[in-house]
Amino acid sequence: MFEELWRWSGAFMQGTLVILLVFLVSLVLTVIWGLLGASAKLSGNRAAKAAANAYTVVFRGTPEFLLLLLIYFGSAVTLTALVKLVWPQTRFVDLSPFWAGAFAISLIVGAAATETFRGAFLGVDRGQVEAAQALGLRRLQVFFLIRLPQMWRLALPSFGNHMNSLVKDTALISVIGLQEIMFTADMAASTNSMPFAMYFAVALIYLGFTTIITLGTGHLERRANHFMTVSR
């Protein structure tokens, strides 16, 4: 068993790097979708609020695996149709599994982040926002200097769970052809007939990712609460 694991160690390391890159890209996108969705839900614009509500209902109520397939194949159909408008001779255009997968899981987790950010924004002391406005700060200044930093502190515990979800959801992307660690484990298991050992190695890698995220989030929470205690 150990000989087989060593033989596939290079492939597992490459797959782990792919997972890390997917996670980082999808993390940035998740924050964007979450902030946009929360801002839309808290806005007075009915159309924006309705769109944000539809987004969270659909992406929180549909199986993640199904959403991944719909986004991957749907993006191919959409891109092909758009390109054919310019170059009619085009036969097929699609997103790479990397970008399609990162985009899909960011939308999935971003729906949950939307609700987390919305609740955190509501938890910001309204008096501080009014004081900032009274001092003459503009709307964007109030958002970036007052609301966003305090919202982030309140959202951090739940957002740590969202980051763990992002990491674990990367395991789904192998189904659309991305050569990450699940893809590698499938290949290894099919050649050496040792599926338990191969998948157990993958489980340890994912456990390592989630442990680092959990410890890092806990450290950030303690720092945020320490600063709050000092300020009091």
Automatic annotation (TrEMBL):
GO cellular component entries? ATP-binding cassette (ABC) transporter complex
Can you say where in the cell this protein is located? Answer: Cell inner membrane; Cell membrane
Key words of the record: Cell inner membrane, Cell membrane, Membrane, Transmembrane, Transmembrane helix, Transport
Q: NCBIfam families of this UniProt entry? A: HEQRo_perm_3TM
PROSITE patterns reported in the protein's UniProt record: ABC_TM1
Q: Which PANTHER family match?
A: CATIONIC AMINO ACID TRANSPORTER, MEMBRANE COMPONENT
Q: Which Pfam families match?
A: BPD_transp_1
This protein is called ABC transporter permease subunit
Asked if Nucleus is a keyword of the record, the answer is no
Question: Which family does the similarity line name?
Answer: Belongs to the binding-protein-dependent transport system permease family. HisMQ subfamily.
Record GO terms (molecular function): transmembrane transporter activity
Q: Where are the transmembrane segments?
A: 12-36, 65-86, 98-117, 196-218
Source species of the chain: Bosea spartocytisi
Top-level division of the source organism's lineage: Bacteria
InterPro entries from the UniProt entry: AA_ABC_transptr_permease_3TM, ABC_transp_permease_HisMQ, MetI-like, MetI-like_sf
As for membrane topology, the entry says: Multi-pass membrane protein
Q: Does the keyword Cell inner membrane apply?
A: yes
The signal peptide, as residue positions, is none
Q: Where is the ABC transmembrane type-1 domain?
A: 12-217
